[in-house]
Design brief:
30% of the residues are buried. Strand 1 and strand 2 form a beta hairpin. Helices cover 34% and strands 22% of the residues. The chain has 6 helices and 7 strands; from the N terminus they run H-E-E-E-H-E-H-H-E-H-E-E-H.
Length: 200
């Protein structure tokens, strides 16, 4: 093998190694803080407006959810959007989790379609029996007991966590307020439960 060919082979091998390393970092290591929430660091505090159910429909509530008021419990935060089908599919798993571990776990389902006012969003999608996907995804939601919340333009928790358009995103905060788990994909109930049980 001549010297030039050996150099070429070495260069190709080096480039391949760098590429593989970058792929591993992006797909595995960097996933830990890709959403802006950083594993093993204290979760930033926030307060959100919540929804309530009246006469079988969601309405904007006067109640608020403040993360720091729930120290001593595991808090599960789920960022979703009405246009995201995987989000809609997994939300029943979060309610199931809350009902199974009520008293130990708080579950907050967070939406923030800021182009529509809070009640307008509810009436356009979740409360609208003629809306696409309503029967399949939203019809049972008024029976759910987990917390549904919303952020506004002037209280943008999505921005606080640097959540992009790739949804759903789930963040699990332990009893001391430290982020212990981040998922940037939809979860089964089993996956969700296994992640939460580690922090109980």
């Amino acid at each position: 093998m001549n010297k030039n060919k050996a150099i070429q082979i070495g260069a190709v091998a080096l480039a391949s190694a760098v590429l593989c390393g970058a792929l591993v970092y992006y797909n595995f290591i960097d996933k830990e803080d890709a959403s802006g929430a950083i594993l093993y660091e204290e979760c930033p505090d926030f307060t959100l407006q919540t929804y309530a159910v009246e006469n079988g429909k969601f309405v904007v509530s006067d109640e608020e959810f403040t993360l720091s008021e729930h120290r001593g419990k595991v808090v599960v935060l789920n960022f979703w959007a009405d246009y995201c089908e995987p989000c809609r599919k997994e939300i029943p798993h979060f309610n199931e989790l809350y009902e199974a571990y009520e008293g130990e776990v708080e579950v907050v389902i967070i939406n923030g379609e800021t182009q529509v006012d809070a009640q307008g969003l509810l009436d356009k999608y979740i409360n609208n029996v003629e809306a696409k996907y309503y029967e399949e995804y939203y019809s049972k939601w008024p029976e759910f007991t987990c917390t549904f919340a919303r952020y506004e333009k002037d209280n943008d928790v999505k921005e606080l966590f640097e959540v992009g358009d790739a949804l759903p995103i789930t963040v699990i905060v332990d009893k001391e307020g430290v982020i212990k788990y981040i998922a940037e994909s939809s979860l089964s109930f089993t996956e969700l439960e296994e992640a939460v049980k580690k922090e109980l």
